[in-house]
Design a protein that fits this description.
With about 350 residues, the chain is of the alpha/beta class. The protein folds into two domains: about 200 residues, Medium-chain alcohol dehydrogenases, catalytic domain (Quinone Oxidoreductase, Chain A, domain 1, Alpha-Beta Complex), CATH 3.90.180; about 140 residues, NAD(P)-binding Rossmann-like Domain (Rossmann fold). It has eleven helices and 16 strands. The chain binds zinc ion (ZN) (2 copies).
Length: about 350
């Protein structure tokens, strides 16, 4: 089968021929119907050889949708032919965090060498992908896999962040979304569907601000040094009750802190490498600063149900598998609107 692989540190990914895997006991083989391409892969591929944590070659792609092609022994929750999406942040399945569905915070995954598909285990940018356990599969019925697959990361990550901040997102509150890209444009829609808060979107790209307005942001403003003042003007001087930074660069985490109200939350989701000093007086009183990683298994099930209600629509650009390497190039150049999805 054809697979988009990262072969050598520092080199662009290529499309290779690799064998189709066979499902062992408990495993499920999916024929990939759609695979989302995530910006975090660009960061992963910039890591130096001596700090690179995964074995190469690595088949990329950690957003997977597929049709069950074959099942191993003792698989009963899904049947051949069923259309599913894949929960990506695999854990041990048995620790306390895993038992409540938060496998993204599994205490033992690292120690046991358990990796998500595309981030250590062979990923979804291929014709087939092997899934370690049936519990990672969420049936999607007749939902379009191409539009649904980004929900497994670009949707689940903001969903998880928003749920954690929901106590701050009462009607009349203000939420700020920094970066209306793959994750941020889903976050805007989720905030509208899940909360009564006023949504302010910030971005440096004119097209992204237009998109933010189309998908429900109450205000779409340029993300610059004027932005915190503009957020304060919109909130009677108070600031935002919850800020979600999907960029995470130094400039944006500082912006996030300046836009935050007292007793608010700042969530740094983006992996831009920025850091916010937290200490008495460094952020507004009562403000919680946190980072989150991906989301929970039960949260993905909830999010797919929300998608069934039509509450969230992902803007996608379709590509063939041979275009995989080109997608990463376009991504690095900021030339993808919404989410790029490879359809093998
Ligand atoms: Zn990702
Ligand atoms: Zn665990």
């Amino acid at each position: 089968m054809r697979a988009v692989q990262y072969v050598q540190v520092g080199q662009a990914p290529v499309v290779n021929d690799v064998p189709v895997p066979e499902p062992g006991p408990g495993q499920v083989l999916l024929k990939v119907t759609a695979a989302g391409v995530c910006h975090s892969d660009v960061a992963v591929m910039s890591w130096p050889a001596d700090a690179f944590p995964f074995r190469l070659p690595l088949t990329l792609g950690h957003e997977a949708a597929g049709v069950v092609e074959a099942v191993g022994e003792n698989v009963s929750a899904v049947a051949v032919g069923e259309s599913v999406v894949v929960y990506g942040p695999w854990g041990c399945g048995a620790c306390r965090e895993c038992s409540r569905g938060m496998e993204n915070y599994c205490a033992r995954a690292e120690e046991l060498g358990i990796h998500p598909p595309g981030l250590g285990a062979p990923g979804a940018l291929a014709e087939y992908v092997l899934i370690d356990d049936q519990r990672h599969l969420v049936p999607i019925g007749d939902l379009d896999p191409v539009r649904t697959v980004p929900l497994t990361d670009a949707g689940l990550t903001p969903y998880h962040a928003i749920k954690r901040a929901q106590h701050n997102l009462y009607p009349g509150a203000t939420a700020v979304v920094i970066g209306v890209g793959g994750l941020g444009h889903v976050a805007v829609q989720l905030l509208r569907a899940m909360t009564g808060a006023t949504v302010v979107a910030l971005d440096v790209r004119e097209e992204s601000l237009k998109l933010a307005e189309q998908i429900g942001a109450h205000h779409a403003l340029r993300s610059d040094t004027q932005a915190p003042g503009a957020v304060r003007d919109l909130t009677g001087g108070a600031g935002a009750n919850a800020v979600f930074d999907f960029v995470g660069a130094q400039a944006t985490v500082e912006l996030a802190a300046k836009a935050a109200a007292k007793d608010s939350s700042v969530n740094i989701v983006g992996i831009g490498g920025g850091a916010l000093p937290v200490g008495f007086g460094a952020v507004p009183y009562g403000t919680a600063v946190e980072t989150t990683y991906w989301g929970g298994r039960s949260e993905l099930i909830e999010l797919i149900d929300l998608a069934r209600q039509g509450a969230v629509g992902v803007h996608v650009e379709r590509y063939g598998i041979e275009q995989g390497p080109e997608v990463y190039e376009r991504m690095e150049e900021g030339r993808i609107q919404g989410r790029a999805v490879v359809v093998p």
